[in-house]
């Protein structure tokens, strides 16, 4: 073994024993008391007058928790599906409770709160599907004030602990203050996070077994939640993180005072790093924000080393740890940065809050060079300790900025930089990130979680007035580290990366993610949808026209208009019509439930079955009033429907005919369909109009909304509880369905045309 490096575990002037402490609030401070009790909330100092473009909100519910003295602090609210009650908010407190409440009405989820045995939770919960339509939840416990307790925890959807792993350290430091990011590492669904000790661990999410090559020796405390991203476009996941550094020698390497940016491979190997002379306590954000749409890493620093030149700085690095720009923000940049399109022009800004000690500064920076955007920074009376989030709250086509402060949540119009709403002022102090969701009723919801004047945890859930049917916007960053898996990666391509229009989509089997596919075969994954490869950038004989996914969500097919079939992940190749002369082009496909077969359909209604897909008939030999444009299969795979552009429906096998728009007047042609069980289905028109048949519920449409580019298809939420519509520019519209991101609008309407 090498030399064990000296650890920064010490005591000082009345403070609790601590590891290198996050520079948020001085020990024993009356106002916030980060180490020890959280004190009274500072009295509101007044908010800026609201401009005419204010965001109207309604407080739907609130919960005051029985945890006075150890309330919610740095654990940000996350979203999970835990039972049949729809989405729930999950958040931890410093008493070691992991709380869960239904977003719809604030009712407690049965079996929750879960518990860590008293180890404080300052980490944000992350989730992944447990394979049964609900989520498993992961969280770190232990913090800088109590570093000798805690570790890595996993809980089932019912709140029962499924596994626990400690983070052993020679100094007895077991705490995990960083959050556990969820992603695929070397083919394994994994969780990864550093500890307050000297090791970083990656585990199989299903059972907590350690992954080969891990742990990684960090040589010091690490508070940063890793970002999990495909930095190099090869389908592999890299681990991007910050870290702290203190002078010393370990395993033959000399460390200096400061911190690190590191990129690790899936096997725990160091790919690159960059050293700073100040700690890096900010969880990094990854996205295509650098010039030319290149992948960038944004991260801030801490304040442990007084006078260090890298203090108060936000950095923009390329994917090889080379610093492209750095900007001094005039305050601590410990909070995690966010990414958003604040102008609505498809370009990407990096947003960060700076803590000045007495207030805050909100910065929006040009992603390509780090220069402040016009109108920014803006000052807040409350301190900014948590990370900022972004979302389009008004449907105006650009992201607004949600800033957590110790005097409530301040919301800024992204384009004008003016205050448009203040939530929880005088009632909730925040040291974490707010969460924005699309609620079950179709409205945009905002959840904040912090502590009140009694030093007890408090959760408030608001809805944006008049927001029914809206998405969260393109290139949004709606919660801490962007998504419930906490990957910290905005995987949407930047301007110039979407070379061809989107032609279709498919959803994962658990409904927690989806893919968009472009006509050049480019594939874009969102939520828990994995990227397993694509035909983007490769030569095609004919353009791609659609896609389908395997039932387990670990693979997919792309199909071209000549019937050429391209399989990725665990999707098998069972044949194609690529070498056959077709009477009419292929326009779509559907997969069998077990993923061992698929159907291709041509515009003349011809049907081609491969693998275990049965042939139950087609319209290939029958005259059609209008061409077929899509298909959907029944849940058991023993039947299917074809839909024509005039809305005509043709049912085969055990597919039930429940009506159609055939012969009915349409404002725009039908472009696709989706099934709701064996008896019902939806048709979607190019203007986003939705037509429901056979008991398929109507959840909303874009029929009355002006679209830049036409809708080209749809996908149902597994089980039929909602649906997504996809437009040619990659814009996605979620109805009674979660929004995980979408592609930016890059094409003018005249380029493709609206039918």
Write the layout of secondary structure elements.
Blueprint: E1 57-64, E2 78-83, E3 86-92, E4 97-102, E5 114-115, E6 126-129, E7 135-141, E8 151-155, E9 161-165, E10 181-185, E11 188-194, E12 199-204, E13 216-217, E14 227-229, E15 238-245, E16 248-250, E17 253-255, E18 258-264, E19 270-276, E20 285-287, E21 296-300, E22 313-318, E23 323-328, E24 338-340, E25 349-355, E26 360-366, E27 378-380, E28 389-391, E29 400-405, E30 408-412, E31 419-423, E32 435-438, E33 444-451, E34 457-464, E35 502-507, E36 513-518, E37 523-527, E38 544-549, E39 555-560, E40 565-569, E41 586-591, E42 597-602, E43 607-611, E44 628-633, E45 639-644, E46 649-653, E47 670-676, E48 680-685, E49 690-693, E50 711-716, E51 723-727, E52 732-735, H1 749-752
Antiparallel strand pairs: 1-34, 2-3, 3-4, 4-5, 6-7, 7-8, 8-9, 10-11, 11-12, 12-13, 14-15, 15-18, 16-17, 18-19, 20-21, 21-22, 22-23, 24-25, 25-26, 26-27, 28-29, 29-30, 30-31, 32-33, 33-34, 35-36, 36-37, 38-39, 39-40, 41-42, 42-43, 44-45, 45-46, 47-48, 48-49, 50-51, 51-52
Structure description:
The structure is a single chain. By secondary structure, the chain is mainly β. It has two domains: 408 residues, Methylamine Dehydrogenase, Chain H (7 Propeller), CATH 2.130.10.10; 247 residues, 7 Propeller (Methylamine Dehydrogenase, Chain H), CATH 2.130.10. Helices cover 1% and strands 37% of the residues. The strands form 15 sheets. A four-stranded antiparallel β-sheet has the order 1-34-33-32, with no helix packed on it. Strands 2-3-4-5 form a four-stranded antiparallel β-sheet, with no helix packed on it. Strand 20 and strand 21 form a beta hairpin. The longest helix has 4 residues. The N terminus and C terminus are likely disordered.
């Amino acid at each position: 073994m090498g030399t064990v490096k000296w650890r920064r575990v010490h005591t000082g002037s009345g403070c609790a024993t601590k590891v290198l402490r996050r520079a948020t609030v001085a020990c024993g401070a009356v106002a916030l008391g980060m180490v020890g009790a959280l004190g009274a909330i500072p009295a509101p100092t007044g908010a800026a007058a609201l401009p005419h473009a204010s965001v109207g909100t309604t407080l739907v519910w609130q919960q005051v928790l029985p945890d006075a003295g150890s309330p919610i602090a740095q654990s940000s609210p996350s979203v999970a599906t835990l039972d049949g009650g729809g989405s729930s908010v999950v958040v931890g407190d410093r008493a070691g409770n992991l709380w869960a409440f239904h977003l719809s009405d604030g009712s407690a989820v049965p079996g929750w709160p879960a518990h860590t045995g008293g180890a404080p939770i300052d980490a944000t919960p992350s989730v992944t599907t447990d394979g049964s339509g609900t989520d498993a939840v992961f969280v770190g416990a232990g913090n800088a004030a109590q570093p000798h307790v805690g570790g890595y925890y996993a809980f089932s959807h019912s709140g029962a602990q499924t596994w626990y792993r400690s983070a052993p350290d020679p100094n007895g430091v077991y705490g995990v203050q960083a959050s556990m990011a969820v992603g695929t590492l070397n083919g394994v669904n994994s969780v990864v996070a550093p500890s307050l000790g000297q090791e970083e661990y990656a585990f199989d999410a299903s059972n907590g077994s350690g992954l080969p090559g891990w742990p990684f020796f960090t040589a010091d405390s690490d508070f940063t939640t890793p970002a999990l991203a495909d930095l190099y476009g090869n389908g592999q996941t890299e681990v991007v993180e910050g870290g702290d550094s203190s002078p010393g020698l370990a395993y033959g390497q000399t460390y200096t005072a400061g911190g690190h940016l590191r990129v690790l491979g899936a096997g725990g190997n160091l790919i690159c790093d960059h050293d700073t002379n100040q700690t890096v306590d900010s969880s990094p954000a990854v996205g295509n924000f650098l010039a030319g749409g290149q992948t960038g890493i944004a991260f801030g620093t801490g304040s442990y080393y007084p006078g260090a030149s890298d203090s108060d700085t936000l950095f923009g690095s390329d994917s090889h740890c080379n610093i492209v720009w750095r900007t001094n923000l005039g305050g601590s940049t410990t909070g995690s940065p966010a990414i958003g399109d604040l102008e609505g022009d498809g370009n990407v800004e990096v947003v960060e809050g700076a803590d000045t000690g007495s207030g805050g500064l909100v910065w929006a920076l040009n992603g390509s060079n780090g220069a402040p955007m016009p109108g920014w920074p803006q000052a807040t009376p409350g301190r900014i300790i948590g990370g900022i989030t972004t979302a389009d709250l008004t449907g105006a086509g650009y992201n607004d900025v949600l800033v957590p402060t110790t005097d409530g949540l301040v919301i800024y119009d992204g384009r004008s930089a003016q205050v448009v709403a203040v939530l929880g002022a005088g009632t909730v102090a925040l040291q974490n990130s707010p969460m924005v969701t699309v609620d079950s009723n179709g409205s945009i919801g905002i959840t904040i979680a912090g502590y009140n004047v009694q030093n007890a945890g408090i959760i408030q859930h608001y809805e944006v007035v008049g927001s029914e049917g809206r998405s969260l916007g393109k290139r949004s960053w709606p919660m801490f580290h962007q998504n419930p898996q906490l990957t910290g990666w905005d995987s949407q391509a930047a301007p110039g990366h979407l070379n061809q229009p989107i032609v279709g989509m498919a959803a994962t089997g658990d409904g927690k993610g989806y893919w968009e596919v472009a006509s050049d075969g480019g594939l874009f994954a969102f939520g828990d949808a994995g990227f397993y490869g694509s035909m983007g950038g490769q030569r095609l004989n004919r353009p791609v026209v659609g896609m389908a996914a395997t039932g387990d969500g670990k693979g997919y097919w792309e199909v071209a208009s000549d019937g050429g079939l391209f399989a990725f992940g665990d999707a098998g190749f069972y044949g194609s019509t690529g070498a056959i002369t077709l009477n009419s082009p292929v326009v779509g496909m559907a997969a069998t439930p077990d993923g061992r077969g698929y159907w291709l359909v041509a515009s003349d209604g011809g049907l081609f079955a491969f693998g275990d897909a049965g042939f139950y008939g087609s319209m290939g030999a029958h005259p059609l009033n209008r061409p077929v444009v899509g298909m959907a299969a029944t849940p058991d795979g023993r039947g299917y429907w074809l839909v024509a552009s005039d809305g005509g429906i043709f049912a085969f096998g055990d597919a039930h005919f429940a009506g159609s728009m055939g012969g009915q007047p349409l404002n725009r042609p039908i472009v696709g369909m989706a099934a709701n069980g064996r008896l019902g289905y939806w048709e979607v028109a190019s203007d986003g109009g939705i037509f429901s048949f056979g008991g398929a519920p109507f959840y909303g449409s874009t029929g009355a909304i002006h679209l830049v580019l036409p809708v080209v298809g749809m996908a149902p939420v597994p089980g039929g509880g909602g649906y997504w519509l996809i437009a040619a520019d990659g814009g996605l519209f979620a109805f009674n369905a979660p929004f995980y991101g979408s592609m930016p609008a890059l094409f003018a309407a005249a380029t493709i045309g609206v039918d």
